[in-house]
Backbone:
């Protein structure tokens, strides 16, 4: 399995979660053994120029925090894009580290049907309107090379248009939305007969008071005999034992009981993070 994340240029530079995820990328408990980040860099964040959106020259500079290689590629050159992507995949496969592909491109239209980009970026959009679309540019090159004929190109375009048109026509007849069809491979037995996920119905999760008392007393004891524990900790354990006897719980004890009951059922519980490790809470 290879994880691929798709980003916009403004989001890559602007969303804190990107920076945070890079710092998780090589931690022993969190690594995916390298993620490929593909940045669709249309050089505009909705209507914001890059100089107003970030302080670094490139949107991808945030990836330098983990020394990830960054490939900037002209998205108007499909063969260069393919080459860079295969190099990125090879890098990830060889070194198990993150890698970034920066597709330098442009956005031909507004960010939605109502948006007229000429209002906010008139000079940029004068240039964009002069650009030959990448499909025509590449098709002309292949036809000039003799790789494909004009007829083959036109047939391919007609085939794709037909797929879109037929799907659009079929969509008008749809009266019901079947959610399960949106899952590409529903797991066997995941849905009940009505198409609702079975997880919607929850079995009773209560446990006996006897079991709660047992978990409470274990949670307030020291597992090793004659083990010298910190006086602050022994105070907490003593208070916890008293609470269990008095049929009271606070957040920490409630959490212990939740984890304890799940463990008693033989279900593995994984806790991670610094506060968990030192037992702050």
Residues:
């Amino acid at each position: 399995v290879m994880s691929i994340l798709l980003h916009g240029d403004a989001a890559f530079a602007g969303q804190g979660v990107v920076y945070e995820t890079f710092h998780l990328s090589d931690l022993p408990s969190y690594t995916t053994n390298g993620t490929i980040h593909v940045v669709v860099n249309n050089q505009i964040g909705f209507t914001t120029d890059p100089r107003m959106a970030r302080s670094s020259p490139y949107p991808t500079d945030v990836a330098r925090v983990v020394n990830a290689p960054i490939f900037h590629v002209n998205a108007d050159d499909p063969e260069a894009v393919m080459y860079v992507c295969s190099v990125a995949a090879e890098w990830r496969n060889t070194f198990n580290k993150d890698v970034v592909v920066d597709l330098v491109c442009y956005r031909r239209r507004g960010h939605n049907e109502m948006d007229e980009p000429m209002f906010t970026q008139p000079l940029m959009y004068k240039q964009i309107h002069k650009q030959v679309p990448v499909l025509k540019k590449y098709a002309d090159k292949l036809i000039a090379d003799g790789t494909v004929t004009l007829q083959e190109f036109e047939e391919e375009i007609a085939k794709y248009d037909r797929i879109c048109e037929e799907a659009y026509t079929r969509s008008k007849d749809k009266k019901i939305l079947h959610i399960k069809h949106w899952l590409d491979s529903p797991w066997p037995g995941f849905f009940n007969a009505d198409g609702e996920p079975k997880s919607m119905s929850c079995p009773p999760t209560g446990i006996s008071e006897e079991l709660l008392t047992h978990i409470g007393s274990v949670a307030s004891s020291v597992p090793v005999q004659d083990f010298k524990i910190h006086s602050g900790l022994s105070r907490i354990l003593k208070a916890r034992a008293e609470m269990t006897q008095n049929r009271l719980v606070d957040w920490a004890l409630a959490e212990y009981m939740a984890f304890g009951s799940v463990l008693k059922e033989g279900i593995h519980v994984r806790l991670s993070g610094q506060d968990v490790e030192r037992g702050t809470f």
Summary: The chain has a mean pLDDT of 90. The radius of gyration is 29 Å. The chain has three domains: 3-130, 132-168, 209-265.
